[in-house]
Amino acid sequence: MEAIEVSHLVKQFGSLTAVNDISFSVAVGETFGFLGPNGAGKTTTIRILTGISPPTSGTATIFGHDIVRETVAARQSMGIVSETSNVYTDLTGWQNMMFSAQLYRVGRSERDKNATELLKRFELYERRDDHVHGFSKGMRRRLTLAMGLVNSPRLLFLDEPTSGLDVQSNLIIRDVISDLIQRGVTVFLTTHNIEEANVLCDRVAIIDKGLIAAIDAPEQLKKTIQSVQSIEVSFDSSSPTRLGELRRIPMVNEARKEGDKFRLFTEDPSEVIDGVMAYAHSRNTRVISITTLGPSLEDVFVKLTGLQRTGGGVTAID
Amino acid sequence: MGLQDRLSRELVAAWAIAKKDVAIYYLRPGTIVGGVLFPLFMFLAFSAGKLAAPSALIPGLIGITTLFSASSIEPVSIPIERRTDTFDRLLSAPISLNALVLGESLSGFLYSVGIASIVFVAALLILRTPLVSIVPLVLGILLSSFVFATMGTLFAAYPTESPGDIISMVNLVRFPLIFISGVFIPLASLPPIGQMIAFISPLTYANDLIDSAYTGITHFNPFVDVAMLLVFILIFQFVANQLYKRFND
Predict the structure, then answer these.
(1) Do A12 and A111 share a domain, yes or no?
(2) Which listed residue, A192, A194, B12, B174, has the most CB atoms within 10 A of its CB?
């Protein structure tokens, strides 16, 4: 039995098809990344899988329970951490934990034990009796995650768990997620942080315009676009015209400045390395470091979703 | 999962939702204005121009108190929870929509029973309002509180994040109900069309039941009043359930 089994799922809002006949499965204990640009259908899919919104057609089962016909049974084994930190700011941290546990009917002794452990784990125990409106953004996020785990779920839905957080919260949350993965909890992760998915996920699905563009292990996906290789190079001096000059080296398809380094995309790394060395020699500058890089998961994402790179990241094409 | 276990799970969750609402929303300005001050001012407005003693208006005051206070929590709490996304937490919990609607209504019910009890005790101690029988009064307060709390939850199904939108809609129903339900204008004095409309108002039966506790006289049979209030609870619960299902789509 799979943890999640999705078959020909469709969701329409009037004339808009938000999810268009998608099918996939997530094995028990697997960490599954669900990536896509804004408006691709990620949140709609999560709302269907958690039983908040019914599909227009198709089926989804959670540990064998149909999410439409056996909603309560399907939800009982889930923990849900939504994109926003949906905690009750007028309640204390402890009251939030207790409320979440009662909704999942966690017994009193287990409730107290789990809440204590989780609040300690998320470094919130000392503030457990404080009202949440005094919590920072990172603390609220950590509390949201703690509330999602209070029923010891077998399947955890994580929607953008670390988006826009401080370093401390980020580290704590990633540490907890890694621990859950080690303990065999199935994790369904949506994130804009592609490197996070690359590090954490066994497999990722890339959804775009309601359709699944690709679904595989991160390394397998990278192999599909081996043509997108790159050279990372840094020089001992800077020049305002350097980026434009590097773009003119033969076989360079694209060049980007990344901090004190330049990244040159090419299908022929050795040819470009020769070109870079010749360029450095002609400009009387020294190459401090030069590295050949394979395609990243972000490269796969960009290629499959048709996004365009800008200076520091990617932008959707309207 | 057996039926008993399922029922127990639903009731525990409903009670948890109610307790959460009690902790968060009872002292909100919108709740106090809608649930306490409105019925008080309505009572003062009607009693000021009447020759009848204030004590004679107590049954009506208890009736409109239950109407306003019971239906004042959810129109405030649910839109706020939509805005903060905490409502999704309830929608994704392992409980049925019936339990969610019940839990939301419970907090309005408790609030209304508390406020109506204060009115009753104050009338007894200050105005020395005589009471013929306490049973119809208790039944009247409990059932009408539940009817109007469920009505508030029903209106709050409308998918908005602004409490003002829901309160405006609820007031469109609450204010006319006062005038067609025999609270301040006796049913016998209403024109035939008014009397027909009164039959479809839950406040008519609530007021009749509460009034009988003070006067010993009923327009309908008290059993009819109780039965009609139970029917209204079931109808409102069913419609609220359907609306939440529809608006979540």
Answers:
(1) yes
(2) B174
